[in-house]
Structures are given as C-alpha cells and as structure tokens.
Design brief:
mainly alpha, GROEL, domain 1, two-stranded antiparallel ribbon, 5 helices
C-alpha cells in the first residue's frame, strides 16, 4: 500500500502529514527527470502505473536517467557493477 492510499484510510490530521510526505517523496524522481531532460509528468505517470499494477514487485521500479524509461531495480548493484567494468576496460 502506498503512502497516498494509506493516508485516505486515516480520519485525523495525520492524513495531511502522510499525504505531504508522499508528495515529498515524488520530488526525487521528478527532479531526476528534470535534470536528465525528460518530461517528468510522463515518467512519473508511468512509474505510478508500474507501482500500482505489479503488486509487491512494483515497488522495485525506478527511473533510468539514461533512457527515461521505468525499469525494475530489484538488483540495484547490477547496473553499477556493469558500468564499473565498462569504465575499467576503456
């Protein structure tokens, strides 16, 4: 359950705090997209769809700043290890 969905189940002022926290967390991928030159609205919509549609596996999706696509980040070190090997061999 995402923070926004959880906030809707609360009847007190805490709902406002949880909603604000969820909005603050979305700033990170939005800023990454802006800095990489991609349309942040399109990428965030695709990311929200992945998070909602894929259930438990969906929480591992993130933004690839090289292509602007959303992809699974179930192994976050896979890409960085490949990049290090490519830099070492160059």
């Amino acid at each position: 359950m995402c923070c926004r969905d959880h906030a809707r189940t609360i009847d007190s002022k805490s709902q406002l705090f949880i909603s604000a926290y969820a909005k603050a967390l979305e700033i990170i991928p939005r800023q990454l997209c802006d800095n990489a030159g991609f349309d942040a609205t399109d990428v965030l919509n695709a990311l929200r769809q992945k998070h909602a549609a894929d259930g438990e596996e969906g929480k591992n999706y993130g933004v690839d700043i090289n292509t602007g696509a959303t992809e699974s980040r179930s192994d976050p070190w896979r890409r960085s290890n490949t990049a290090c090997l490519a830099n070492d061999s160059a």
